[in-house]
Structure to design on (350 residues):
C-alpha cells in the first residue's frame, strides 16, 4: 500500500466516529451569548440607591471645594515661595498647590461619574449588530429613541441631588482656567511709568558703587550709574535696573543745542536713560566728537547734544532725560524721576 493510500485512510478514520475519532462541533466560534442578568443591590433597595446617590454627590462636592482651593492657593501663595515636600524635595508652593487642587477637582468629577454609571444608571447589556456607515431613517429614529431611553435610565431627572452637584462641579472647574489667565504676568498698573529715581537720590557709579561727583566725569567720557540704595543682591534688582539704568556724559555747555536739556544738566553733565527705545537693549557706545550714542543691537543713534533725539535707526522716540543737580555734600543727585516712561514700545504695551 502506498503512502498516499495510508494518508487517505487515516484522514477517513479521523472523520469517521466509527473509527474512534472525536466529533467536532459544527461552529467552534459560535457566540456563547450573554450571561443571565444579575440585578444590583441599588436596583432592589431604594435605601442603597440613596446611599450611592449621596456618595456621587459627595464626590462632586469635593470637586467643587478643590476648585475653590485652587483659586485660594493662587491668591495666597507668592510666586517665589518654596516648600519641601517628601519625597519630591524643594518645590514651588504655588505650582504644587495648584497642581494638587486641580488634580483633586478633576479626579472627583471622574470618580463621581464612574460611580454614578456603575451603581445607578441602567446596567442591562445590549447587543447591537453592525450596520452600514450611512444611517438609514430607521436607524436615526432608533438612535433618538435610545437617547431618550438613556436619558430616562440615567435617572438624572429623579436624582436631583446628583444633577445639581454635577452641574455645580462642571460649572466651577472652568474657573481654574480663567484664574490661570491671571498668571500670564503681573498687572503693570503704573509700574512702567515710574523708576527708582526720585528727588534726592544720589547717582552711584555702576562699576565702583561710589556716589558720583562732578569732577569724576570728564568731558567726552561715558559713565553708567544706578540709583542710590539699589544693590545687585536685592530682590527684583534686574527688574529695577532695567528701568533705572542711567547713561551720563559731560559736554561743553555751549555744545548743548536743546534748552531743556541744558536746564536739566549740571555744568554740562547730562543724564539719559541707558535703555534703547527700540527693543530695550542697553546703550553702550558713544562717539565723543559727534556726541552720538549708538545702540549695539540695531544701530539706533541718538544725539545727546540735542535732547537725545533719534537721528538714525529703528528707535521710535528720544531717550528720556533725568534732571540732576548737587546735594549738600557735593554729589550728583536726581531732582525727580524721568518725566516719561523709559524703554521700548511703551504705549503699545502699557
Amino acid at each position: 500500500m502506498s503512502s498516499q493510500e495510508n494518508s487517505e485512510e487515516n484522514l477517513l478514520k479521523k472523520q469517521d466516529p466509527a473509527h474512534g475519532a472525536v466529533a467536532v462541533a459544527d461552529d467552534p466560534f459560535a457566540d456563547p451569548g450573554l450571561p443571565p442578568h444579575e440585578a444590583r443591590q441599588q436596583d432592589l433597595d431604594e435605601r442603597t440607591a440613596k446611599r450611592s446617590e449621596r456618595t456621587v454627590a459627595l464626590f462632586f462636592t469635593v470637586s467643587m471645594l478643590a476648585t475653590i482651593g485652587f483659586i485660594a492657593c493662587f491668591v495666597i501663595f507668592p510666586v517665589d515661595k518654596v516648600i519641601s515636600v517628601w519625597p519630591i524635595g524643594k518645590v514651588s508652593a504655588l505650582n504644587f498647590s495648584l497642581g494638587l487642587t486641580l488634580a483633586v477637582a478633576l479626579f472627583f468629577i471622574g470618580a463621581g461619574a464612574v460611580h454614578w454609571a456603575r451603581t445607578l444608571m441602567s446596567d442591562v447589556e445590549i447587543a447591537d449588530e453592525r450596520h452600514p456607515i450611512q444611517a438609514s431613517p430607521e436607524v436615526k429614529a432608533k438612535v433618538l429613541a435610545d437617547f431618550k431611553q438613556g436619558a430616562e435610565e440615567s435617572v438624572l431627572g429623579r436624582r436631583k441631588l446628583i444633577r445639581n452637584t454635577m452641574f455645580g462641579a462642571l460649572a466651577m472647574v472652568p474657573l481654574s482656567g480663567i484664574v490661570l489667565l491671571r498668571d500670564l504676568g503681573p498687572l503693570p498698573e503704573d509700574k512702567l511709568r515710574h523708576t527708582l529715581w526720585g528727588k534726592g537720590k544720589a547717582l552711584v557709579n555702576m562699576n565702583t558703587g561710589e556716589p558720583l561727583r562732578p569732577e569724576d566725569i570728564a568731558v567726552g567720557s561715558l559713565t553708567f550709574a544706578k540709583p542710590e540704595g539699589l544693590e545687585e543682591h536685592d530682590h527684583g534688582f534686574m527688574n529695577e535696573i532695567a528701568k533705572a539704568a542711567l547713561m551720563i556724559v559731560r559736554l561743553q555747555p555751549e555744545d548743548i543745542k536743546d534748552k531743556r536739556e541744558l536746564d536739566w544738566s549740571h555744568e554740562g553733565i547730562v543724564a539719559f536713560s541707558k535703555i534703547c527705545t527700540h527693543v530695550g537693549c542697553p546703550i553702550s557706545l558713544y562717539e565723543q566728537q559727534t556726541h552720538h550714542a549708538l545702540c549695539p543691537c540695531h544701530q539706533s543713534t541718538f544725539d545727546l547734544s540735542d535732547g537725545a533725539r533719534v537721528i538714525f535707526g529703528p528707535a521710535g522716540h528720544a531717550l528720556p532725560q533725568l534732571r540732576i543737580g548737587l546735594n549738600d555734600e557735593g554729589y550728583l543727585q536726581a531732582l525727580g524721576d524721568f518725566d516719561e516712561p523709559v524703554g521700548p514700545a511703551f504705549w503699545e504695551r502699557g
User: Anything to note?
Assistant: The CA atoms of residues 156 and 274 lie 66 Å apart.
